[in-house]
Amino acid sequence: MVPGHRIHAAGGGSHPLGEDPTRWAASIAIPVLALTAAGAASVTSQVRGAMIDELRKDYVRTLRTRGIRPRSILLRHALRNAAGPALTVLSLEFVQMFGGALVIEQVFALPGFGSYAFNASLQGDIPIIMGITLFAVLLVVCVNLLVDLANGWLNPKARIR
Question: What are the domain boundaries of the chain?
Answer without folding.
Answer: 21-158
